[in-house]
Structure prediction request, 958 residues.
Amino acid sequence: MSPSRDVLTRIAANIETVMRGQAAATRKLMAALAGGGHVLLEDAPGTGKTTLAKALAKSVGASFKRLQFTPDLLPSDILGVSVFEQKDQTFRFHPGPVFTHILLADEINRASPRTQSALLEAMGEGQVSVDGATHALAEPFFVIATQNPVEQHGTYPLPEAQMDRFMMRFSPGYVSAEAEVAILTDQLSRHPLEAVKPCATVEDVLAARAQARAVRISEELKRYIVELVGRTRTADGVLLGASPRASLALMAASRALALFDGAGFVSPGHVQELAVPVVGHRLALDPQARFSGLTGASVLEALLKSVAAPA
Amino acid sequence: MKTPPLLLAAALLFWGRETGMFGLGLALAAAVEASRLIAGRLELTRDNQNRIADLCSAVFALAAAYTYATADSADAARLMLLRAPLFFAPLLAAQAYGASGGIDAGAFFWTLRRPGARLVLIDVSFPYAGVCLLAAAGANTRSEAFYPSLFALTGWGLWHQRPRWAPAPAAAALLAAAGLLGHFGHRALTALQPAVEQKALDIAYGLAVGRKDVFQSRTAIGSIGELKRSGRILLRLRSPEGRRPPALLRNAAYDVYKGRDWLAGSSFTELPGRSAEGTWELAPPAAKARTLAMDALIPGGEGPLALPAGTFRIEGLPAETLKRSRLGAVVVQGGPGAAELALSLGPGPSPASEPSPADLAVPPPLTATLARTARELHLKKDRPVEAMAAVSRFFEDGFRYSLRQTPGPVGADPLEDFLTRTKAGHCEHFATAATLLLRSAGIPARYATGFAVLEFSSLENAWVVRQRHAHAWTQAYVGGAWTDLDATPGSWSDAESADAPAWQPAADLGSWLRERLRRALRADSVRRGAMWGLAAVGLYLLWRLRGGLGELRARAERGGGPERPGADSELYRVEAELGRRGLGRRPEETVPAWARRAAGAEPRAARLGELARLHERHRFDPVGLGPEERQALRDGAAEILAELERR
Prediction:
């Protein structure tokens, strides 16, 4: 159909050569990439979070930086630092790893909250302020953060404001036995990641983002999105529901997913598919409800079942 | 709904005819079947369904409480069964008029109502038809048409649900075979039942003093093993003067001892009384009268009344007739299941017929033993009072009360065995032996059954009479009147109260509360209050439901008009048609997801997926469909509908 759709399909196919049996995760990643959001991958170690991010980075011929978050990581290690130059008696800004197209923030919840929040401005506004000077980031700027489930040792849970900056949070999850066998087969001689060749350019990604903003959405579906998000504010066990930013993100992601599917318009299925990854992580739950097993995802799943879908 | 068209209507009409609620059955049948003609469906969410299910349960529980309080417990269960289709009709309606084509399992199980629980749709149409048939069976009309109708209805449903791969002739043959087997089986069961019933009656009569029959009292004399009786409270006595009520309440008297049975003739005289007010005159009023309040359970509203000696007036018994037998038993017919009676008693005995030769007869096998014992006790015909005292003393000193009977020598008469060997027995032994002893001395005597008043309940502030207080004693004709003689040793009351189970206090409390409720409901004002209360609860539940429905109506209204483009899509007709076949779209399901599911279950709708894609574009793409695609949507829907029509 449109060239942008082809670009996305190509990237997805490229990723699939590395990430066996993760078509659903790849779909979401494409939706986030074309929807202009950032992604938080949350899963147990060894499920392919980093590989997914690296496969995407290699597929797009864009600059790529990887940051391993540790408890002693400082904000300046991410953003950059101004250094005094003896020669011309001035401060010169040395940009940090955040000045890139694709940033892989590995194990983001191992860094201290102070360092985590250094990413806030970068992710939210596409710029970095250091020593009073504002530096614009590259376009596109796409963060893929990974984190282990917060219950594990030595982690700092991401604050709500930081969570809200991620368009989606999802878990690649374990793959089927056949897919796992395929993974073993792939890696007999070398890692397939080494064979991944770029198949799209930065311009292609920017074009896809522009194309996604042209996907049509009906009034009815906007209301459906608003109702789903609005209901999280009154749902049982939820302290703080999702903000209008969640509605915006759900709409943008749904449009990007529709583009990926080759449809010129959003249908209810797109909204339903993305409601959990886009909205689920933005809810602050009542501690007691959380203790009894309620999660943001389960609240959303219940809502999807109780709100009638437009048909 | 999975049931074939009109099956539910037929089941409901059958239920209505059998239970005598034909009008209701007709109305329900019309309401249910109308859903097949009406294309529109309500978008009931899970919450709505849960509320409807809760409404059904609440109404059922309230109705059960009310029925249980006002009717006999066996009757109450039957009444609730008869009305079951009524109580669950809202659930069926929710399915028939709901868009999802089923009821979520969470509506039935609270444990499944967690957020995030998987949606499990249950089709209630077949279970509902089953409930109708069960309820119809509960009416027990015993009509010849019952079995054929039952077979026709179940056969219809089964035929419709038969596996598609099964060849029709084989299925028909199997159904017919099952029908015939059922026919002969139920005939055989009907024949078997009286035999089993007779056997069961024999056993039951052995266990409890026959209280129902005033002409025959089968005793447990000669039975082996232990007698067990229930602690159920049958009567409550309150004496306004605070005096102890009479110790014995008589149900019936018998004059002929045959085998092990005491028999009485069956001549009755109707007693004068004003049945509307429930006042009955049993005898001319006595001068020194006292009153006694008695709350009596009268199972089925018929049977002998347990009355103290000297009762001359009964008030508070709205019955059709009250009759007295020749021997003095008072039998009520067409009365209430429970009544609060006010009795007036005189000092003298109750009227009964003059002694006849039957009151002196002694069965031949026992004549020798009885005559010897009578001689030993120096019983004399002309000194009946002394004779009675001697008999009483004889049993008190040498005999033991026991509900446990051991087998005697083969061929020995059990009563003779009691007198000569075991010297232990229960009240029937003592009463029968005393009666026959007095007779063999030439004193007219009868065998009487009824209840002993033994227990004062401080909880109820009344004397209570339980089933296990059933008793038998002797009436001797002394000085021109029948006088009671209780020959059973006094230790029997201890023996019987030792019989009380551990849960007796709890059971008593329940019985007392139930009695209070029954009494309260009898008062008009309270009954009216209860009705208003029920109505208020019902309205509240409806109001809660309305909240949900209002939301849904609002959504439907908002969805209509210019804001809902593509509402003319022909896919909705396919959706409605499949909904009637139990493949409706659930409210939260998107059209493509539903299409996948329905196409998987119904091969004739295989092209639904294609249609769903066109429909979604028609509905959600602001650009919409081109004229050709619009026509394709129309044609595709028509094609699937035609395919579905063809069988």
In short: The two ends of chain A are 26 Å apart (CA to CA).
